[in-house]
Design a protein that fits this description.
The chain is mainly α. Helix content is 76%, strand content 0%. The longest helix is centred in the last third of the chain and has 25 residues.
Length: 50
Amino acid sequence: MIGARIKPDLEERMKELAARERRTVSDWIRCRLEDAVAAAQADQHHSEAA
């Protein structure tokens, strides 16, 4: 399991976003991390192809 510390002001904003999307903060962070990993992998594949 991955742990992360978040600045208090960012944590509050993330809680608001998660509430709007009806997800927990952990779910919201996991989705953002998955998006970031997918983008990094796509960028890596693009760089390797060049």
